């Protein structure tokens, strides 16, 4: 019988083979710098630096923080040979010109094998419903819970305005607020974490992702930097995704660099506009373009005030963006 070790990096269920010394051959990706500089951890919580990819794995797969891999020890080095099956993955659009161990065809793998996704939004930064919808569309990951964390709630008027805007459009969305000046707010947040969870924090620079992790850890794991005066934009202090073991209560947390823009590539978040999809199913014609066709249920809903016209316009914009992405992807594969 295998007993779960809290700091095993969730590796134990993957163990099926060992080397002659009895040490496990399975590790978890902690951080990726390049193909020859990858930080991994084994089931004993031992961290190895400067692991590298085997030649065959370079050609076969891209890696992400949180991945489970097989490795072998060669002299004083560690060669990663096999990528094990992922439970899920979180990706974002990136420059097609960028080359990295976790970038392929303009899609960057940020993390894998997650249980929780926390979108972090600072109350002192510019906010729009469109920004929120892009987060919801792109970062809803299968087999995870997505929640919104509003930081810097001490900016009371901004906090109330943002919360009201979100709840008006998405009343069922889980929203939590935290502030370093309000420690009880972290008590509520902590209840969402468990020792078996792997949680990722996504948001703009200066949103407070690293601050939250430092608060949970009770120490400075990541440097933080104040936002720039004038445009309220954060400076990049986190330069690559990094998985941390916090303690036996909060499990594993992944900090990520600030996101500048959110290009859509994900189709899993379709429930964001489930009401519009449902209306479209009631149109008289299956190929209805929802403009001036007779029997269009969407235009009828707009006329009666059931559906907000600007929300539908955003929906159409996102759909065109996703269609464009998939056409480009298919063109590259041919």
From TrEMBL:
Q: Note the SUPFAM superfamilies from the entry.
A: P-loop containing nucleoside triphosphate hydrolases (SSF52540)
The record's comment on cofactor binding reads: Binds 1 zinc ion per subunit.
Annotated CP-type G domain residues: 104-262
Q: How does it assemble?
A: Monomer. Associates with 30S ribosomal subunit, binds 16S rRNA.
Q: What class of enzyme is it?
A: hydrolase
Where is it found, in Gene Ontology cellular component terms? cytoplasm
Q: Which UniProt keywords apply?
A: Cytoplasm, GTP-binding, Hydrolase, Metal-binding, Nucleotide-binding, Ribosome biogenesis, RNA-binding, rRNA-binding, Zinc
- This chain belongs to the protein called Small ribosomal subunit biogenesis GTPase RsgA
**What is the role of the protein in this entry?**
One of several proteins that assist in the late maturation steps of the functional core of the 30S ribosomal subunit. Helps release RbfA from mature subunits. May play a role in the assembly of ribosomal proteins into the subunit. Circularly permuted GTPase that catalyzes slow GTP hydrolysis, GTPase activity is stimulated by the 30S ribosomal subunit.
Source organism: Oenococcus sicerae
Cofactor(s) needed by this chain: Zn(2+)
Give the matching Pfam families. RsgA_GTPase
């Amino acid at each position: 019988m295998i007993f779960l070790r809290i700091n095993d990096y969730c590796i134990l269920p993957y163990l099926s083979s060992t080397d002659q010394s009895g040490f496990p051959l399975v590790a978890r990706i902690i951080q990726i710098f390049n193909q020859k500089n990858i930080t991994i951890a084994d089931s004993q919580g031992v961290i190895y630096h400067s692991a590298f990819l085997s030649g065959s794995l370079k050609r076969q797969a891209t890696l992400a923080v949180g991945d489970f891999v097989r490795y072998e020890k060669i002299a004083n080095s560690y060669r990663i040979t096999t990528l094990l099956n992922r439970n899920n993955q979180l990706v974002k659009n990136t420059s097609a010109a960028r080359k990295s161990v976790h970038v392929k065809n303009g899609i960057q793998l940020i993390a894998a094998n997650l249980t929780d996704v926390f979108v972090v939004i600072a109350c002192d930064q510019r906010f729009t419903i469109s920004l929120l919808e892009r987060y919801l569309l792109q970062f809803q990951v299968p087999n995870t819970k997505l929640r919104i964390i509003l930081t810097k709630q001490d900016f009371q008027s901004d906090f109330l305005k943002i919360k009201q805007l979100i709840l008006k459009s998405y009343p069922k969305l889980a929203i939590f607020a935290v502030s370093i000046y309000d420690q009880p707010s972290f008590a509520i947040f902590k209840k969402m974490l468990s020792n078996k969870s792997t949680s990722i924090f996504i948001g703009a620079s200066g949103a407070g992702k690293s601050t939250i992790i430092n608060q949970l850890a009770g120490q400075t794991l990541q440097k933080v930097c104040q936002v720039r005066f004038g445009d309220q934009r954060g400076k990049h202090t986190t330069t690559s995704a990094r998985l941390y073991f916090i303690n036996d209560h909060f499990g594993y947390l992944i900090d990520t660099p600030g996101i500048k823009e959110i290009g859509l590539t994900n189709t899993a978040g379709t429930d964001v506009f489930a009401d519009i999809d449902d209306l479209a199913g009631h149109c008289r014609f299956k190929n209805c373009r929802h403009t001036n066709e007779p029997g269009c249920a969407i235009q009828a809903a707009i006329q009666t005030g059931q559906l907000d016209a600007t929300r539908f316009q955003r929906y159409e914009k996102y759909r065109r963006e996703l269609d464009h992405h998939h056409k480009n992807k298919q063109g590259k594969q041919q």
